[in-house]
Specification:
The chain is an alpha+beta fold. The chain has helices spanning 7-44, 63-69, 73-76, 92-98, 148-166, 173-188, 215-223, 233-239, 256-262, 296-306, and strands spanning 49-53, 58-61, 106-114, 120-131, 137-146, 190-199, 204-212, 225-227, 243-245, 269-276, 279-289. The chain folds into two domains: 45-146, PAS domain (Beta-Lactamase, 2-Layer Sandwich); 150-306, Beta-Lactamase, CATH 3.30.450.40. It contains ten helices and eleven strands. The radius of gyration is 31 Å and the shape is elongated. Strand 10 and strand 11 form a beta hairpin.
């Protein structure tokens, strides 16, 4: 029969258990404090961050994510939270993660994401994968950087370089302007881009060159002439001030004759003056932006091209 432990042995055992319990509490406190510091860091990080658990569900997102994409933690926590991923790209990240070597835990990716209000953003993703002791994924943290404006500026510079290079190749003015208008249309993402000149003798506008998604519409526009009051261009010529109008539906009757002549409804427009020394001779314009609204970057781009 085994001997019963002595009092001293029991005391030592109790003391040992107390020490282990204290160590466990300290470790738990340290883990809890580390978690708080981690969330505090993510909260003030200027880049959007989204954290997913082992099931792929959202466990955390920071305020920068809400500012950039619109959704809050309350809306996405415990859910797949893939509303900001375009449908055509829903399997892109999963596929890239599956192809990631087992010992690698960081993935970088350039892609696009959606905002709650329907905008499309160019983003760079950096994905950190948490792995268990068996190297199996058990969660991930995704840091995103919005590079939309950065990419737009790169495209703008590239377009300006192309336009500068081709200037000597187009001795015919109309063909040159058609090339430039096509560049503008693609660069700004619009249905149409136009070079509009003022006939000062007749007090009329005519389209010297236009680029339009519909070739038949382009032909009709280039044959038409407009009184100064029929176009927004009239205001720009009078004031010399560029104009951004993102919603023309508020005054549908004001330019009805213009829409009838060109064969389509102008919903939004961006216009800048064309100058010859100290005279305004016409307008460089783009209309019907396909995604989002015209902004100051679009205006800066068009002004730069107009001054070329």
């Amino acid at each position: 029969m085994a001997n019963e432990p002595t009092y001293e042995e029991l005391a030592r055992k109790i003391k040992d258990l107390d020490h282990k319990l204290l160590t466990a509490k300290t470790a738990s406190q340290e883990t809890e404090e580390a978690a708080k510091n981690h969330k505090r860091f993510l909260k003030f990080l200027p880049y959007p961050v989204i954290v997913r658990d082992a099931k792929g569900l959202v466990s955390y997102l920071n305020p920068a994510f809400t500012r950039t994409f619109g959704w809050t933690l309350a809306e996405l926590k415990g859910k797949k939270g893939d509303q900001y991923v375009p449908g055509s790209l829903e399997n892109e990240l999963i596929g890239r993660l599956k192809a990631l070597p087992a010992k690698k835990s960081v993935l970088q990716l350039s892609t696009i994401r959606l905002t709650k209000d329907g905008r499309t953003l160019d983003v760079k993703l950096r994905v950190g994968v948490d792995r268990d002791e068996n190297n199996n994924p058990e969660g991930m943290i995704i840091v995103l950087r919005d590079v939309t404006m950065e990419n737009r500026r790169k495209r703008n510079r590239s377009a300006m370089n192309r336009i500068s290079r081709v200037l000597p190749q187009y001795p015919d003015l109309r063909k040159l302007l058609t090339y430039i208008n096509t560049e503008i249309k693609e660069l700004l993402g619009t249905e149409s881009a136009n070079t509009i000149l003022l006939d000062e003798t007749q007090k009329e506008f005519y389209f010297l060159s236009t680029a339009n998604d519909d070739p038949h519409t382009r032909e009709r526009i280039e044959k038409a002439r407009f009184s100064v009051d029929e176009l927004l261009s009239g205001q720009v010529v009078k004031t010399g001030i560029p104009m951004i109008v993102n919603d023309l539906s508020k005054n549908p009757d004001q330019y009805q004759s213009r829409d009838q002549k060109i064969g389509y409804t102008v919903k939004n427009a961006l216009l800048v003056p064309l100058r010859n020394k100290d005279r305004i001779i016409g307008i460089l314009a783009a209309d019907n932006k396909k995604t989002g609204e015209f902004d100051d970057t679009d205006l800066e781009t068009l002004e730069t091209i107009a001054a070329t």
